[in-house]
Amino acid sequence: MADFLAIVVIGHALPLLGAVFDTRVWLVVAFAALAISLLLYLSSLLREDPDALVHSGRSVEALVPVHDEPEVLHRSVERLAASTYEDLTVTIVCEPDDHSAIERAGDLAADYECVNYIQNRRSGSKAGALNDAIERSDADVIAMFDADQEPHPELIAHGMAALREHDIARVRSLPRPTGLIESLAYYEYLLLFFLPQKLARSLLGLRIVGSRSVLIERSVFDEVGRFDEGALTEDMDFTHRCHQANLSIRELSYYPCFEEAAHTLRDWWGQRVRWITGHLSICHGHVHDWRNLSDPAYLSSLLSLVGTFVAGIVLSVTVPKLILASLSYPSVVAAGLAGIYGIVLTTRVIDNYTAGIDGFDLAWLLIPVSLTLYGLVVVQVVVSYALGREVTWYQVEKHG
């Protein structure tokens, strides 16, 4: 009888497992999820008023931490100095042993009246640089940008308008698609981060705060504390604490920040290893206590841990599975890829209009390759994390 029941269970389980790993199923799921995400993005654009701008009033201090990248520092500083918001101070936070960055910061401070620079008294991490600058600041609102970001002149004004009703205003930051690797990073960003986050926000209510391209009320730091200087991804840790404090976070799509993407495959790989490792460590730190099951931030962490591993396995075999499936179901695979490509290119058209990206490129044809590589990174990180191997900070090469 036991053998018979086992045969029955296995007989029912095998078709289910086959469906789970069926490429056709994943294509349908991916298309449906991305289509819903695109609709949510369009809906958020319609609800956001690009003319909602506040050009003066409360004091804002924009912090720009820099470390070993003086050649790109002018990007963020010059753009911030050209901001249409009047009551803005730009503070460059330099590491005390980074003499080239200090020299460049001094030149920029001499060129622009609203710009000054300080040396980090808590050196060792980006979180420490931000914490030190926040402690010294008396501004009503703290804004934060990376050295290579290029904030739109209206970004601060648009963010300050959002802060009339919210505690935090997060502005979209996207890689500039200037070459093949850079364009792959852009499409990867759309498929794996930007669009899925729209769906995740609707289902779980989790909005990313981050530590760049964001404006934060000073009272937020009094309530949730500053950044964790021991975290590999201090932005995700801060995000979870803000959600646990039930703070109001507004995500803005207009007037985005451009940032420099990785230029080589080595930098691309190393950067993602750090991101994913930091993400796993933060999520793991939030799921020790099962009594928090009613906490949305806890649930999102738990789902992120499981989802990251599953997504990594699925993505790592993207190209092989598409090749095998196309031999048996060529029309289904073609239709599924056409639908996903259509969503990606539609988003690119919208970005060309709202973010000012120029033209198109053919890197979108290599999306399956990019997803496969990303999946391999995830699998490597999960295995390494499970084995207790440490990952240190990785800094990509920037082009001035």
Automatic annotation (TrEMBL):
One of its GO terms (molecular function) is glycosyltransferase activity. It holds the Pfam family Glyco_tranf_2_3. The keyword ATP-binding does not apply. One of its GO terms (cellular component) is membrane. Keywords: Glycosyltransferase, Membrane, Transferase, Transmembrane, Transmembrane helix. It comes from Natrinema gari JCM 14663. Coiled coil: none annotated. It is found in: Membrane. This is Family 2 glycosyl transferase. The chain crosses the membrane at residues 28-46, 297-317, 329-350, 362-387. InterPro entries: Glycosyltr_2/OpgH_subfam (IPR050321), Nucleotide-diphossugar_trans (IPR029044). The keyword Transferase applies. SUPFAM superfamilies: Nucleotide-diphospho-sugar transferases (SSF53448). It is a multi-pass membrane protein.
